[in-house]
Amino acid sequence: MSLRVLVIDGYRSDYDGRRKAKSFMRVVLQALRTVDTRAEFHLAMMGMEELQQFIYDPNGNVHSQAQALRNFSSTDVTFVGAEGSLSPWHPKAALLLSYLNQCVIARSNVFGDEVAMRMIWHLACVCGRQLHVVEVLNLEKEDGSTSKATTFPKAYSGSTSVMVDETTGEAFQFGDGAQQDDYQMHGENSPGRN
């Protein structure tokens, strides 16, 4: 039995990030050894910025899209490890979010840390739509409580334009200047809110 394994490294490039990446790789190797000692593994580790070669983009040229689909289809198992502070709406997470969305659609095998699970939760809450984050808000007050945003600039109006609360992950969509609940990810009544 031969398995193609992709390990996605979402850790920083500094000393601490490289230490965490090595530690994550050791965990992945231990997990693979417990699956089947007779199995042969073809392992590739790459950074989030290299994921474009696996992501199908209908606007790309036919040759590169065919290659991206072949690359994605040939991967049997994906492991995702990343910095705990990486949020789904951060620009650096865009390719990882697209890759995970593809994995969900294709029902691929993904094993991930808290960041991967947070991104999959985000995808579920926005129904896989790519949101255009126009502004990140910090609605947390000094005493630790949060305030609600009540007005939004009309200049940001758009079907996928949102403002995101960096503390809770709540996403606000614009329309007539009122909050829309369509993209609310961790609202008052959601399971992600403590």
- In whole angstroms, the N-to-C terminal distance is 44 Å
The residue fraction in helices comes out at 25-40%
pLDDT under 50 segments (min length 5)?
Answer: 146-158, 176-194
Number of strands: 7
Q: Approximately what portion of the residues adopt beta-strand conformation? A: 15-25%
Overall description:
Helix 3 packs across helix 4. The chain has 4 helices and 7 strands, in the order βαβαβαβαβββ. The relative contact order is 0.12. Strand 1, helix 1 and strand 2 (40-47) form a beta-alpha-beta unit. It is an alpha/beta fold and 194 residues long. The protein is globular, with a radius of gyration of 19 Å. The strands form 2 sheets. The chain has a 4-stranded parallel β-sheet. Residues 146-158 and 176-194 have low confidence and may be disordered. Helix content is 30%, strand content 21%. It starts with a strand and ends in a 21-residue tail after the last strand.
What is the compact description of this entry?
With 194 residues, this protein is an alpha/beta fold. The protein has helices at residues 15-35, 62-73, 94-106, 114-125; strands spanning 2-10, 40-47, 77-82, 109-112, 132-137, 161-165, 171-173. It contains four helices and seven strands; from the N terminus they run βαβαβαβαβββ.
Distinctive features:
four-stranded parallel β-sheet, single chain, 4 helices, 194 residues, disordered C terminus, alpha/beta
Topology (elements, then pairings):
Layout: E1 2-10, H1 15-35, E2 40-47, H2 62-73, E3 77-82, H3 94-106, E4 109-112, H4 114-125, E5 132-137, E6 161-165, E7 171-173
Parallel strand pairs: 1-2, 1-3, 3-4, 5-6
Antiparallel strand pairs: 6-7
Helix pairs in contact: 3-4
